[in-house]
Amino acid sequence: MTATIFSLFGAFSVNAYSSPDAPSGFVNDFAQMMSASARAQLEIKLVQFEKDTTNEISVVTINNLGGDTIENFAEKLFKEWGIGKDKNDNGVLLLIAKEERQMRIEVGYGLEGALTDAQSYWIIQNIMRPAFQQNDYDAGIVGAIDKIIAATKGEYVPSQKPSAGKTWNLKSIENLLFFIFFAFIWLAAILARSKSWWAGGVVGAIIGVILIFVFSAVIGAVAILILTPLGFLFDYIVSKNYQKHKSAGTNFPWWIGGFGGGRRGFGGGSSGGGFGGFGGGSSGGGGSSGSW
Fold it and tell me: Residue ranges per domain, the chain?
């Protein structure tokens, strides 16, 4: 049962990232979206920028995301190549997916203060998007890099926040699902061990009251009417099952905190670049995404 549940939730979390290849320089035009001259000139500019500042900017175009989200792809690629210096995390990735018509600016930890999410969003919406809609990829990419360089140098770059309704993506939904899932287990484990079964109803009512302030009185009232009896029923079921297994001396079900075994840690670290230009930096997920 436990394995089945985790396999179902694992389906949401496993994205189809596939490495495009090892980097051959700062500009990696795998999708052949740039002209040869623009690509060569931009490479020279980024090489010199790295020498002057140690900051590393990588431009990557790919044919498609292979079913992945551009946010996850950018984060995985950033980590795989190790863009930026190891201890400074001063890298920036400009990723463009040709078939999905999406782009993302992924910013390393060390540059998030200089190149903000709002500035990244402005660059995408006001520099890249208009140029890409005219199929002028050279102008969009070079213009974006110029603004990114300016921001990292402390020069003024306008900022713009995404409008409401554009901030949700697959990764946000995944995080919400995992939060709900583990919150459910945590709540079930607590309520199952309580001596009274009415506490679940109280929790449901409290959630409804919170929704009044978050959304509206109507939504909150409806939530109270629904969640209060469901809370009573939920508490009754988990408490009854807990007492049953406790009396029998058997293992508790997964949904009332019955996971067994030791804890496993997660491995860390990120790989450096294959061509010698990247220094093993990492990203914290900062930046912005857009489409054209």
Answer: 15-166+271-291, 170-256
